[in-house]
Design a protein that fits this description.
With about 280 residues, the protein is mainly alpha-helical. The protein has a single domain, classed as Methane Monooxygenase Hydroxylase, Chain G, domain 1 (Up-down Bundle). About 60% of the residues lie in helices and about 0% in strands. It contains 12 helices and no strands. It is globular and about 70 Å long.
Length: about 280
């Protein structure tokens, strides 16, 4: 082994970026790494901030992929849509792993800076709300925390006024089986998607005739995968909050763990889960 320091430039690697775009320039790292502003001198507050900022970045990508998947479905580009849905599942796998890092913060650590959060809370994440709205969990009451930001409120409200991605999937399901003139259930707009027997019956037909409806079957399983990871993210959220603050109320005024446990019962694609007991 040579004792001389290796010089990548000797093999052609560019080493001078005075007149060219560098890695940091492309990613805008100077701006990205300058937006962590702890309110206290507490060591663990930096972890708390970066955990939530990186989660928001992953959620931004999830929204990007879900909107592209919706467009691909309407264009009949099914294979690219499958890839996008698989990517969203992996994004939530990353979000799940992030809880493991946050759980290294003990209750004593969090107590030292919790008051500095004021009434801010992850409950107010508009990107998380957008993901729920796109997928079909549409609670219009949860628009209220965003009324102080007309641009965000309008964006979320507009999503509530259009069919969800799952509504679009249901349309694809019915027209694929019954043809273009199929009687498709009405989209569920400003209300959480509730299970409908006629939708469940169609999915059951798919699962009982996999070879005939392979594309629909694969789509169904992609959705189940996505919700599976989404549910795990919610469960890990509950466990982490209980581990760190017990049953205290959330900083945003919610019931904390009790509120999060209630959210565990929400189903994004209920028919796909309910039909399993009939097969």
């Amino acid at each position: 082994m040579s004792s001389e320091a290796y010089d990548p430039g000797s093999e052609g690697a560019r080493m001078n970026f005075s007149d060219a775009m560098s890695y940091g320039d492309y990613l805008g790292l100077e701006g990205l790494l300058s937006v962590q502003h702890p309110k206290t001198e507490t060591h663990d507050e930096m972890l708390f901030i970066i955990q939530h900022q990186t989660s928001e970045l992953w959620m931004k990508l999830a929204i990007h992929e879900l909107k592209a998947a919706r467009t691909a479905l309407k264009r009949g580009e099914i294979a690219p849509m499958f890839k996008m849905l698989a990517r969203v599942s992996r994004i939530f796998e990353q979000l799940n792993s992030a809880w493991d890092v946050l759980r290294t913060m003990t209750p004593a650590d969090y107590t030292r800076f919790r008051e500095a959060l004021g009434p801010s809370s992850g409950f107010q994440s508009y990107q998380y709300r957008m993901i729920e709205y796109v997928l079909g969990n549409r609670n219009p009451n949860l628009l209220k925390p965003h009324e102080h930001r007309p641009d965000i409120h309008r964006m979320l409200s507009e999503e509530l006024d259009r069919p969800s991605f799952y509504d679009d999937v249901v349309h694809f399901l019915f027209t694929s089986i019954d043809g273009p003139g199929a009687a498709v259930p009405e989209p569920q707009l400003r209300t959480p998607h509730s299970a409908k027997p006629e939708i469940q019956a169609k999915w059951k037909l798919v699962y009982e005739n996999i070879e005939t409806y392979w594309t629909l079957y694969e789509l169904a399983e992609k959705l189940v995968d996505l919700e599976d990871y989404f549910r795990r993210w919610r469960f890990n959220h509950v466990t982490t909050v209980e581990r760190v603050i017990g049953f205290k109320r959330g900083t945003g005024g919610t019931a904390g763990v009790e509120y999060l446990r209630r959210m565990l019962g929400v189903e994004l694609f209920p028919e796909l889960w309910h039909l399993r007991g009939e097969l």
